[in-house]
Every structure is written in structure tokens, then in C-alpha cells.
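Session log. Operator J.P. requested a structure for one protein chain; no other inputs attached. Running the standard single-chain path with C-alpha cell output.
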Amino acid sequence: MERINLKNAGADARRDAVRAAADALRSGRLIIAPTETVYGLFASAASSDAVAAARRLAKLKPDAP
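Structure written below.
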């Protein structure tokens, strides 16, 4: 797990973080990121393993949409 704090980061660090996040999604890993109001859990829908991991982490039932 990697934590990237962008609170006071410059443009280069933000660009690198976006690239790292995209790479993580492409490789089937999950991303948790803050939004204005909540933390979001992100997974690539192209990876059934990532979707399954996200569903487990969110404690969703197998038949839940």
C-alpha cells in the first residue's frame, strides 16, 4: 500500500500521483481517494478481481448491484 499526500504538492507531484493512480487501476489494484465530502473507493471495471476486492472491502453482498 502506498499513501500519497498532495495537500501541499506542486504540479509535478500531482501529475505523478495521477499517473501512479492510473497505473494502479490498470494493474487491478484499488484506490481510495478523498473527494469534497467522502472518501471514494475506485476499481477498474475491466478487472473482475479488482471489482471483487472492492465489493469485499465495501462489505457488499454478492447479489447487490
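Operator note: The longest helix spans residues 11-26.
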